[in-house]
User: Fold these one by one.
Assistant:
Number 1:
Amino acid sequence: MTREALLASWHDHLAQARRRSPHTVRAYCAVARRLLHRLDLESWDSVAALDTNALRGQLADRRAEGLSNASAARELSALKGFVGFAREQAGVPAAGAPRLRGPRIKKGLPRPVTPDEAVNLADTVHALAADEWIGARDRAVLLLLYGAGLRIAEALSLKLGDLPLGERLSVTGKGGKQRVVPILPIVAEAVADYAAKLPFLLDADDLLFRGARGGPLSQGMIQKVTARARVVLGLPATATPHALRHSFATHLLGAGADLRSLQELLGHASLGSTQIYTRVDAASLLETYRNAHPRESRD
């Protein structure tokens, strides 16, 4: 079996069985390719035979190239996943898989934007667009992120056949996990407005959001137009598309939503991932207190 055949199988497993995002698939395949070439491996048996020392050596080489702690942790996750997949293909028991801890990563709190900033971002990307339909497209995507708490990949996975949007939308998220999210009238109207202005003929199974030349819209383009809009609005670099999803969660929690409901809306696999928003909300309250309390303002 050739290396390219191994990589093709790994790619299909990630993209189809695991339903990972295109970005993750590319990154994990790049990690596997480096491992295969460095150790001259060309079969599932040879990959499955790798032990902890082999993975530690691969990671050490990458750290010598200047890999950060966060990147090293992601690289290790990809390595362990690839070796685990190889063991399945080779029929090797999973119990003996290599065990290796990655570097500790200090997680920072998400940086949400205010409700006004979220709406202003959506309106500004619309105003800055070269064509009216592109502006309507960018506004619709950002409102899906803020109004429904979608990930960018989830918003861009909408198909023409999903329209018209009703009060609820079924979304397939990470790991193929499905959830139902509420759709606000302003979000449904923005998506419908874009669809009415779309200059391309699409079938029901085609992706709804398209690039300027008619191909599927990329996440990078949404990040690019958001970056330009935040400069115009004077917002910090933390005002990214993904920050709109953080804002959705933080604002719902501040309005009284319980953590279990929020976990379902966000599609988090564990409650621990959702609990970080309690810290965000507490931090926001503290900042408001410091800015508004008479004694604090005099100090």
Number 2:
Amino acid sequence: MSQQHDSQSYYVPEQSPWPIVGAFALFLIALGAGTTIAKIHQTGDPGWGKTVLIAGIVIVVLMMIGWFKDQIHESMQGMHSEQLGVSYKQGMSWFILSEVMFFMAFFGALFYARVLSVPWLGGEPNNEMTHLVLWPDFTAMWPLEKTPDGTETQAMGWTGLPLINTLILLTSSITMHMAHVGLEKNNRKQMKLFLTLTVLLGSIFLYLQVLEYVHAYRDLNLTLDAGIYGNTFFLLTGFHGMHVTVGTLFLIVILARVWCGHFSNDNHFAFMAASWYWHFVDVVWLGLFIFVYII
């Protein structure tokens, strides 16, 4: 189909294989990642889990390329009506809401450990007997720098790389907004410049987070096995890093489309969706920085 649809029509796309391909790829990633972690913990070798994980990642990349290609083709051929645009906005809003609830679960685990579990193990309130039976040497403090098996670790401070990364993400939110303003004003030079800066800042953030993880493992003995503090630290920052990776790839695709002359000041949902997602990632990091690093 290549005909132009009027604003009152609703375009129903043909059946697509990409949703089931994506679901299968995510299954492989979950299976491969879980198996890899378990095998490494047991034997020190990832075994077949590593192969399954890599296969899942490759299939996800291929799925994204194919699905993006189909969506871009439909958009550029004028198949998307105004009514469909409203559906896209609602869908993206619900998707971001689901992501908010995803992170709320991990923040909830963090608060439960800090506010309820740690004081309870320390004998408060009125829990001295359980404290003596379960862990008599336990000191109720956060972050927990000693695991039940006696392993000692150090907490990640908020200065240094975490503070630099916070400033980088805050700056990237500003550059993303300036790129959006450039698009709305039909100033494509401004849009290209600030969108490119946003991609660069996102990439720098990811690079610095890798350095932070290397520092945590090598110098602080802060690992995924380092008790509840290590668990919550890496789950929250790791999943956020994954979302920054997805957001950066999203922005790279949008930047490529901008250089190809796509989008106008009155038709740019994909650009707007990328902007929404990037601001969401920035807000989540602010919560992480405050509750994981500072408090």
Number 3:
Amino acid sequence: WYHPHCNTLTQMGHGMTGVIVVEDPADPEFDAEVVLNLRDWRLGGDGQFIAPFRPRDAAKSGTYGTVRTANWHREPQYDAPAGGLVRLRIAVTDVTRIFSLKMEGADATVIAIDGNPVPKRFPLDLLQIGPGQRLDLAVRMPDGEGAVATLEDIRGTAPKVIASLRAVGSSLKRNIGDLGPLAENPVRKADISAAEQIPLVLSATAENTAVESICGTLGYSFWAINKVPWPGDTPDPTAPLAELKLGKSYIFNLENTTPHAHPIHLHGMSFTVISSSTREVMPLVTDTYLIQPDEKVQLAFVADNPGDWLLHCHIIEHQKTGMTSYVRVS
């Protein structure tokens, strides 16, 4: 997906996000495909944009929108062949909202996360994905004409309908178990035994006025990586978090000491999730990890892309109030 990285909160909040689908001709055959761009809008009673954030919320989980949509519509519905297999591609391009997704009225299987096939497919019983993350589902449509399958967000006090799929025509009687595999992306595997460890501690910071940076500031500093909010109050406030050698393996030892979840995103490279202190994890290949409060996780990768690569929380208020840095690969 794509979005701007300057004046980010306002421009993304006003709708400048989109999805790019790169198709593999060797992918298994689906009977329909639906792409969902999930995002909120901060609108007042008159339908006009209101302030994109509130400082008291930016210092917590973020400022939520007042209108939630999929593809710019409230609870849109799409037709799909009865008894068929639908590839549902989901991108959370919101600036704040973390979703707890569930499917009602149909069987849904997770086949890819963040553009990479999962090592082992699993049913969508309940899955959290945050801003910046993508999800591919194989949905087996109900057999009856007119039956509806509903994608819901159950995070919060009451389930919210995101979008729905309506069965049309005679049943195709497809079976998810017959769906062939997705090809792996060409991501180099890290040498865990030789990997260098890099500590990354996510924390809150004492509220103070943020330093003006190249893309401006929200005027506050609430968050930090390794105790330094961006841009840091250090001898070189724009120095890289780490300098990595091209082709070498590394492990991010990521620790969340805050009471809030953070979708941490690395530009330019993908990592593999190898362990968590709070749960059993699948070795997912991804570029964004939704780290839970008080969780410690290990993310392994090969520094195979030269350049300066941003590392940040994809809750944009957290990014813009300190939880940002970058690594240099050379």
Number 4:
Amino acid sequence: MRRVKGISREALEFILEASRSSMPREFAGLLQAREGVISEILILPGTESSEWMAWVPVYMLPSMPIVGSCHSHPVPNPAPSQEDLEFFSRTGSYHIIAFPPFDERSWRCYDSSGRRRDLIVIESNRAQTPVFRPE
């Protein structure tokens, strides 16, 4: 298991905005971390969503490390379902569920067994973050 110390504010804001924009459908993605901070959300081709579920084609997982998943619940209930727990068991150890009204308090993090887990929000210094890195 990769150790994660937190999630960047930008990554969390992306999850919340994508969840809000997807309403009434669920949103789903995978989490990637750099230097122990969840900083990227990966959306796989073929991901499907409806008002009741989101489906991520795990057979399309890239060969890059994934630390967990994120998805939304269109109702204000952050508890993971049985289907969520099955998905969690295949996609890492950090799983974020966002729920209405999709603000900074409307999300929870769980481990792969569905137990709540603390995850701090890490502020980044945007002035030092490169927007484009030439190869």
